[in-house]
Specification:
Pfam families: DctM
InterPro entries: DctM, TRAP_DctM-Dct_fused
Helix content: over 70%
Organism: Salicibibacter cibi
Radius of gyration: 25 Å
Largest sheet: 2 strands, antiparallel
Strand content: under 5%
Number of strands: 2
Oligomer: single chain
Distance between the termini: 31 Å
Number of helices: 31
Keywords: Membrane, Transmembrane, Transmembrane helix
Protein name: TRAP transporter permease
Amino acid sequence: MEKSANGNEKIDLTIEEERMNSSIEKSLYNPDGWTTWKRLRQFMIAIIAITLAVYVIYYAAAGGLPAWQHRAVFTTIFLILCFSTFSYRKGKEPGHLLFDGVPLILSIALLGHAFFSYPDIALRQGATTLIDQIVATVMIFLVIEGVRRTIGHAMAILALFFWAYIFIGPLFPGLLGHQGFSYGRMTDALYTTTNGIFSDPIYVASTVLILFLIFAAFMMRTGVGQFFIEFAFALTGRIRGGPALASVLSSGLLATVSGNGAANASMTGPFTIPLMKRVGYTKTFSGAVEAVASQGGQIMPPIMGAAAFVMAEYTGIPYIEVAAYALLPAILFFTVVGVVIYFQARRLGLEGIPGYQLPNFWKLVAGKGYLILPLVIIIFLMVIGYSPMRAGMWALLSVFILSLFKKESRMNVMAILAALEKGIRNAVPTVMACAGAGIIAGSVIMTGLGMSFSRFAVEMSGGQLLPLLLLIMVASIILGMGMPTVSAYVILATVAAGALTQLGVPVLVAHFFVFYFGIFSGITPPVAITSYITAGIAGSNPLRTAVYSLRVGMAGFILPYMLVYNPSLSLDGSVPSIIFGIITALMGLVAFAGFIEGCMLKITEVWERISLLVAAVLLVADHLWTDVIGLALLLIIFVYQWRSKDKNTTAGISTEY
């Protein structure tokens, strides 16, 4: 461990980066045991990825190919990267002649078709040829296979079902059926237009999302990930429950940049989870906190897992307004997660980390604070009217310029090439998911399933809002399980959001409702992928960790309902009513956290715990008299606990979960 000025040991917060984590570095440095063929394959992958990255940046600056051709070329290049790097068998190197080689050759052929068939293919819309139908079929099945390799079987099966539904829909009864469509109509809908595979998800992926993933790769290469972790521990480490609070802050900051909860948990978990366990948190609780923070970071502006950019396209509302709307609920969410952690720390009698073991806050900000300027630049440029794509381009340039200021962050040519490649390669699963979501969205639009599902859901709920919200919540969690943020949101927005707007829920609120539940499906059993990753790091039982993640992240399941029932959270109303609404919402969440944890200033008695639940329910309802009663009840419990807080807060409490 590093020594502090007074000779005491400091905790190690250093991120151990993989020495050669990109194909360009691996192929040039030739690690022991690598064959010439393997080096060549990695080098070609790197060249393809870097070339695509350069084109994407050029496209953001000056434009490029026409819309359909741009999206088709972009998607087929990612198919090539997918089949070059992901084997048909999980955990294996690609190289099988039939199952890896044939899809790769077909992907290259599709790239050639995308280049040379335009503009003729656009002129044939509505009158597709047999060749068009064959090419469309190959593209659809390669996309589904790419989804299977990168995302998993669940989404691949879902995409395959929705493609088949175009033809088997007449077999379904009632509202769920349709009249059926010809193969030519399917080809038009899913391939030759921009309404299927090449619809809004791929448009956003090929313009905004890919730029921000390259931006994130550059940010991490310059040391911003290390800065976020050190900043979080310097700011919160001394507080009771400090390591867990620091985990929430650092993982939240990194997840909003990376846009992937599971990947973020894999990156920060090995540092935050051992520190939480070291100060006395159980391994189950430690894994749950990291899972919630990593998954929840995707609801925090400015990037939000790139789903906010898709939401702006779907709703027609400018991105900066979408991000501004998301800010308050995100702050409430992380505040309540912090409160849960604090209550748990009091419950277990835990303290913070001694100051001498932590980074110096002011030295850290003075030495590395400039690393967050690119995020500030993104927000500033979009506030003054720049598009997200153009703002991302300038922010990317600013990262490179700022990296030159200090030797430890300076990027040489190899580092720049590696960051370009890593940004593209990190995008492969997300782009495959977006293409798969395009198949689903195209099928839903073509068959009218979205409208049918909306009518079906409204009928099932009897036209009542609360039953409909519960129904949509369950559907959103199920459809979102195991999927990346963008693809989960696209499916839910296409299928479910319309049902809410039919009962008068504002468009943006309806989209955020499904967006939140799609995200928090990542910590919801049985497919709680992020919780399972952190459980592996913590050495805890995966199912117990997932269940406890629900406790820690319970605010994520209540906030969507608050958005619907509390207009103040939408900043709708007078200033006093908005302030009062925010306060009551926060107090309601705090009361529920106390009920869940069974502790506030001290361990709660049975009557206190029941009263906290009653107060939480009263504060969620948007009525003055319920808010007043709820606040009074919460105040009574707080005063009672304050007067008796000297009692032992840990007696008889098990620390195993």
